[in-house]
Amino acid sequence: MFNRFIQKTKKAQISQGEIEFVNLQELSSIISDKKLSDSSKRRIALQGLTGVNESRRIKANIIDRNIFLANSCNYLLEPANCKLELLLCWLNSKLLNFIFKARSTSSNVNGYEIDNLPFCFSKYDDELIELAKSILIKKSVNILTDTSELERNIDERIYEIFSLTEEEIKIIENSTINPS
Q1: What is the pTM of this model?
Q2: Which long-range contacts (C-beta less than 8 Å, at least 24 apart) are formed by 60-67?
Q3: pLDDT for 135-144, tens place per residue?
Q4: Of 7, 39, 96, 171, which sits 20 to 30 A from 71 (CA to CA)?
């Protein structure tokens, strides 16, 4: 189970379902060789279903090797030219969430929709990677740790990359406020 920057590993951390363990021999007989091979790599997990009215539609986290995902999850492997931590910043950013919500009207978070989101390399890449690492470390110790300041820094860098105006930023920021 996971959420943005969080991997839930204890029953008390989840609200529904079960954390299950798989029989690797049994699993290998029912999934593709590619998926089995991919499971041995670090990758980004994406929640495959989210409510269309949720303030955050994209929910991504890096998952370790030999963690298996249920059918309602998607994943991205680490590209040769880009660290997973950098992709994680972009995927969990308010800007990409805003764009995704504007384009998607179903509860599915499909791979092709993620593939069509904007992404570019910038002078902030190293800083973004360090911000993601800081969040992941803090959340691994306590998933309830407040990392909003670090997340705001990520959003500010991505706004700068696209040279967004204060008015554009305000529209994006207001779209992620949780309704009362």
Answers
A1: 0.83
A2: 60/4, 60/87, 60/88, 60/91, 60/92, 61/2, 61/3, 61/4, 61/5, 61/6, 61/7, 61/88, 62/88, 62/136, 63/2, 63/7, 64/7, 65/39, 65/40, 65/41, 66/39, 66/40, 67/7, 67/39
A3: 999 998 998 9
A4: 96
